[in-house]
Amino acid sequence: MVVVAEFTNSRDAAIAAGMLENNGISCHVMDDAMSTLYGAGATWAPVRLFVDKAEAERAAALLREHGDD
């Protein structure tokens, strides 16, 4: 698994992950549950979107195409 994108909040990462999954790319969102303060939304630690290394180039292209990079 490799990181194809980083986000400042879990919501944006989940939207990007859903788009990738709808295009047949399995992915995983990893965030630090302690990185938000009282559910404020923005994090001090990036929320990372991982895909299989073999799908990384295609995933990155889709993220750029959809403005999620």
Task: Tell me the layout of helices and strands.
Blueprint: E1 2-7, H1 10-22, E2 27-30, E3 47-51, H2 56-65
CATH topology: Alpha-Beta Plaits
CATH H level, superfamily name: UreE, C-terminal domain
As laid out across the biggest beta sheet, the strand order is: 1-3-2
Shape, per Cα inertia axes? globular
Which blocks of ≥5 consecutive residues have pLDDT under 50? none
CATH class type: Alpha Beta
Listing every helix as H and every strand as E from the N terminus to the C terminus, the arrangement reads EHEEH
Beta-strand residue fraction: 15-25%
Assembly annotation: single chain
Number of strands: 3
* Percent of residues in helices: 25-40%
Describe this structure in words.
The chain is an alpha+beta fold and 69 residues long. It has one domain (2-65): 2-Layer Sandwich (Alpha-Beta Plaits). The protein has helices at 10-22, 56-65, and strands at residues 2-7, 27-30, 47-51. Strands 1-3-2 form a 3-stranded antiparallel beta sheet, with helices on one face. The longest helix has 13 residues, at 10-22. The protein is globular, with a radius of gyration of 12 Å. The model has no long low-confidence stretch (mean pLDDT 86).
Task: Jot down its keywords.
69 residues; alpha+beta; Alpha-Beta Plaits; 3-stranded antiparallel beta sheet; 2 helices; 22% strand; globular
At a glance:
The chain has 69 residues and is of the alpha+beta class. It contains 2 helices and 3 strands.
